[in-house]
Design goal:
It contains 8 helices and 19 strands. The chain is of the alpha/beta class. The protein folds into 2 domains: 77 residues, Nucleic acid-binding proteins (OB fold (Dihydrolipoamide Acetyltransferase, E2P), Beta Barrel); 191 residues, Vaccinia Virus protein VP39 (Rossmann fold), CATH 3.40.50. The strands form 4 sheets. It has an 8-stranded mixed beta sheet with strand order 7-18-19-17-16-13-14-15, with helices on both faces. Strands 1-5-6-4-3-2 form a 6-stranded mixed beta sheet. A 3-stranded antiparallel beta sheet has the order 8-9-10, with no helix packed on it. Helix 7 crosses helix 8. The chain starts with 13 loop residues before the first strand and ends with a strand.
């Protein structure tokens, strides 16, 4: 929205119209006959709905709104499995009203649109269900609630501090987290701090490792960099593939995660180094040979903001033959895909994974290959 807009509030205004395509962020685009574009939640492309504006003032470039009435429903619309989902209710899930196959099709459409718009690439991508998924429910192994005065729990509304009391979140796996976590992937145990990062879908780590290994095709003797490495999930498996003659360098900003990574990498057969620090700074001023020299393979698993141009430049300077990019935001991935193209790397494969059913979030694993001329 325009920061300069200061006209009368449009909140509560109702607009009838046919919803257009899905957009990044869990909403669809409505272009009324007059007035600004409206980003609409709780709708599906092609539906005729009544939208109630939830954010915006006269003069804004766009408004936000909820579909409060569905006049002509999409065949992909279903009854939400959660009674707390819908306009004015819990803001945790965007797509409870959409059949699971259609949810994945919408996410794939967003990935394609972002890659076309930001990376100028036409990609053919599907978003796959993750092994272990059951109807898109009960997958979230960690969930945060707001504690209410009467001892009940709640969730916040979308883009709001208001709380909706929730007695049972349908995506919560309701598992208890121990003081120190041990996760097993492919028969290998990983130590993780109680509040440390680990993928919340129980099938995620396995399928991400599978995707990265299949895309990179590691060889004995490879020199590997694992960036934004967490507790060393990818470094552990790539290091074993590289063998006694290989090397692994990993960089992670969270000090406690690095301490756990050192435990997790202790049995690697080759040389390895785990560094705590900002990825861009560590790459720009490396201290040892593992971090400073040329490498064969790189894994990038950045936060939602992506790796950005300077990190991509430092990675490319080390001339890896392949790069695996694990992305939780398709816009950041598409932007960094353009940077990688500038640096001489082309997209070899792209896999979409539905690690967050019932929400608009999607995980991607993109593999890039160095062009022969570079």
């Amino acid at each position: 929205m325009s920061a300069a807009a200061s006209g009368p509030s449009a909140v509560g205004t109702r607009i009838e119209g046919v919803v257009g395509p899905v957009a990044h962020g869990g909403h669809c685009v409505l272009r009324p006959e007059s007035g600004p574009v409206v980003f609409v939640r709780h709708a599906l492309p092609g539906e005729r709905v009544v939208v109630e504006v939830t954010e915006g003032v006269e003069g804004d470039r766009f408004w936000r709104g909820d579909a409060v009435e569905v006049l002509e429903a999409s065949p992909d619309r279903v009854e939400p499995p959660c009674p707390f989902s819908g306009p004015g209710r819990c803001g945790g899930c965007d797509l409870q009203h959409v059949a699971l196959p259609a949810q994945r099709a919408l996410k794939a459409a967003v990935v394609r649109e972002q890659m076309q718009r930001l990376a100028k690439l036409e990609v053919d991508v599907e978003v796959e269900a993750v092994p272990g998924d059951v109807d898109g429910l009960r997958w979230r192994t960690r969930q945060r609630y707001v504690s209410l005065p009467d001892g009940a729990k709640g969730m916040r509304k979308h883009r709001s501090h208001e709380v909706v009391e929730v007695d049972d979140c349908r995506i919560d796996a309701a598992g208890r987290v121990p003081a120190e976590q041990l996760h097993t992937v492919r028969g290998v145990e990983f130590s993780v701090a109680a509040d440390g990062f680990w993928q919340v879908h129980p099938g995620a780590a396995e399928v991400l490792v599978e995707s990265v290994l299949a895309g990179l095709e590691p060889r004995a003797g490879d020199r590997v960099l694992d960036l934004y490495a967490g507790v060393g999930l990818f470094a552990r498996f790539l290091g074993h593939a590289a063998g006694v003659t290989g090397t692994v360098g990993m960089v992670e900003g969270d000090r406690e995660a690095v301490e756990h990574a050192r435990t997790n990498l202790a049995t690697l057969p080759g040389r390895w180094e785990a560094v705590s620090g900002d990825v861009e700074r560590v790459l720009a001023k490396p201290r040892g040979p593992i971090m400073s020299g040329a490498v064969d393979l790189v894994v990038l698993d950045p936060p939602r903001t992506g790796a950005r141009r300077k990190v991509v430049r430092e990675v490319a300077r080390r001339t890896p033959r392949r790069i695996a990019y694990v992305a939780c935001d398709p816009a950041a991935l598409a932007r960094d895909t353009a940077y990688l193209a500038e640096a001489g790397y082309s997209l070899r494969s792209l896999r979409g994974l539905d690690l967050f059913p019932m929400t608009h979030h999607v995980e991607c694993v993109a593999v890039f290959e160095r062009a022969a001329a570079h």
